Amino acid sequence: MKHKILITLFFISNLLAAQVKFEAQVNSDTYGLNERFPIAFSINNEGDNFKGPDFKGFKAEGPFINKGNQTSITIVNGRMTQKREISTQVIYYLTPTKKGTFTIGSASIEFNGTVYKSLPIKITITDAVQMPNYPGQSPQQQNYNFGDGIHLVGELSNKNPYVNEPVTVVYKLYFPYNSSVSNLRNFLAPKYEDFWSQYIDIKQLRAEKGKYNGKDYSVVVFRKVILYPLEAGAKKIEPFKIDLDAEVPTGRRDWFGQYEMNTVTKSLSTGIQTIQVKPLPENGKPDTFTGAVGTFTFDVKPSKTKLKAGESLDLEVSVSGKGNLKLFTLPKPILPSAFELFDPAHSENVQTPITGMTGSISDKYTIIPQFKGKYTLKPMLFSYYDLASKSYKTLTSKEITIDVLEGDANFTANQQANKQTVQKAEVFQYNKLVTTFSSKNKADFLGSTLFYTLLLLPLAAIPAVILLKKQKEAQDADVFGNKIRQNNKLVKKYLADAKKQMGEKVPFYMAMEKALHNFLKAKLHIETIEMSKENIAELLQSKNASEATISQFMALINDCEFARYAPATDTAMQNDFERAISLISELEKQIRA
Amino acid sequence: MRKMKKYILLLCCIVQFGFANEQTFKKANEYYKNENYQAALQLFESIANKGVTSSDLYFNIGNCYYKLGKTAPAIYNYEKGLLLNPNDEALKTNLSFAQKLAIDDIKIVPEVGFKKILKNATNSLHYDTWAWLAIAFAFFGLANFLGYYFSGTVLLKRLFFSTFLLALGIVIVSVSAGFYNKKLDLQYNPALVFAATSPLKAAPKNSSETVLTLHEGTKVNILQELGNWNQVQLSDKTIAWINKNDIKNIKD
Fold first, then answer.
1. Topology adopted by domain A289-415
2. Does ipTM come in above 0.85?
3. pLDDT class of A138 with cuts at 50, 70, 90
4. Superfamily name with CATH number, domain B190-249
5. Rounded to whole angstroms, what are the CA distances from A350 to A229, A294, A527, B54, B235?
6. Which residue of A has its CA nearest to B107?
7. Closest-CA residue in chain A for B67?
8. I want to staple B122 with a disulfide (CB 3.0 to 4.6 A). Which of A67, A164, A173, B177 is the partner?
């Protein structure tokens, strides 16, 4: 009624202008996503051929047409004026379908052959609001705030979890005892970005007693979701939206004294909720940590530990317990290179009750040992963050020894081209029983002084040999000089002989004679045949020897000749020897000069 | 005379010393036979600590470690033995057994072409052997030169001169092969990863990107050193940096 009055008054004021007006009107230009609002196109007259705009982004209900017919009687100075006012309203109820700013286009209407157009209207649709203004009912109903007592709530189990710590969201619908809800529809669940989420089905909705804000309510749990935050930070959970029909008392009583019930359609939303996700502590985070959070046990089991090369064995790596089982990777086994490892078969046996994932996951590897031997598989490590003790824990598997017995290594060796084959000698060689030891710190021979000396010695010897031979040849070639040298040698030799034979007359004088002859041969370059006394004196003279020395020398030669056949004393021999030496040195000096 | 006595005593000591090593070696093998690998290992190691070496000694130490299930020390000792005697079949066989226990299987990129031929040829002898070979041929060459120089007939002269030239050629080849081999030997600084796992870094610092992770028993070749880091090359030619404390030089 209020509305109508307002509109009427509005038209009355417009009467003064007395012209045709066609307008589009809304109460506000901003609405929440979960609100429903009317848009009215009004003309202050009767119109034909109304064409509504295209309500893009809205769900429109209508048109509802309101016709006003008003007669006003004015008496001024006894004169009565009667005016008849006609107005027409076309009303649509719009429900937004998405957020954003929308422009509602112009509507058109015809009056007296003229087409009137309304101005377009801009409307901004924001996020859903907690307490939607829900018009559309009669103004009376509006006053009563029907359905105000119905609440949609998403209850978070933990608003400040760690990464990968489960958080449950329980969506509950609270409504007063005296109301009932039905026809829950248009569920608009958030996408839970940055979370791993899983719905938990609720098979039958059941109303229970519950309290909300200290008041008693009926409560229906209609959805449970378990969330695992995937990263740290402030994460928003989009509102959950739902439409429903609620039967609420109007506050009036009917003829029989019962409360009159009215069915209203309500759109409810939980509003945005924020979860502050804490990162896992960096302090003490093990290297082997791959994101497991919860409480786990770790096991590594081979299917067999004794087998032949080329046969396969299964190695099962499994983790069981409670925690984010689906959200981390299992550790990979590290094997000796003699083992061929195939990609694992992953299996999960995980239930997700409201308390979080429980069960086990496992990776089953197929392993084929290639060569005979006893191999030890290193213990594997699995780390997780324990929420109860708020600390990292590392589990270690047992060391596994795998004994690969005799096997056809050739067969496998062919498959693995890049591995070394042990075909030549397939057995592990036994210790060496005898050995010879050598010093550890042996100096290098190559590059040492000894090395260079020994290397260059023969090479240097070659030119030396050449040089020596050349010299010898030169000497050999010099016949004349050689003769002199030889005669000089003989002089010395016979003089020495003479000295030895001192006292023995004949050999002494023979040696003396030979010495003197050879001296002459060397100095005068003559042969024994040419040797006559005249000749000798002449030659000595020509060689610049002094007369006195020559005659003394000649006398000495004569003496030596005679002495051989005449008796001689030791003193005479000694005398002659000294004479010979002094004369030889004397002549040597004179001939050279 | 006193000096003489001293020398004889010293000689006796050396003989005794060597003899003691042989005794220990035998005793250790006895332990090995009785599968008391720990005791055998201790005795073998005690010989090695006396400053003497032999490829067989390292072979036996490697066997003890293999039997005790210690991969890295086993491979380390086999590699050490192979350095002394690169053609020992038993060493190669047992090394391949020990390598099967190692975790990493790194592809071996073979060297190709002329470089490989050169390397193989010069590697056939130790560089000191090349040196002795060069000296022997130098003297042989000298003998031939003398023969050439002093021989009378043309035929003999020709024969001696050609063998002299041949010997000279062999000397040059041996000396260059020896020096090339020595250069290669200096560049070859193999080391073994002893740490259970060791990250290979792109740059010599902890914060650097990890190229890959090596496990115990993998052989690397040290290229250069910087502080606490060694630049190493893997058999697949990957070059990266590794923490010095994670590896042990085989030539040490």
1. Immunoglobulin-like (2.60.40)
2. no
3. very low
4. SH3 Domains (2.30.30.40)
5. 18, 14, 134, 61, 45
6. A418
7. A374
8. B177
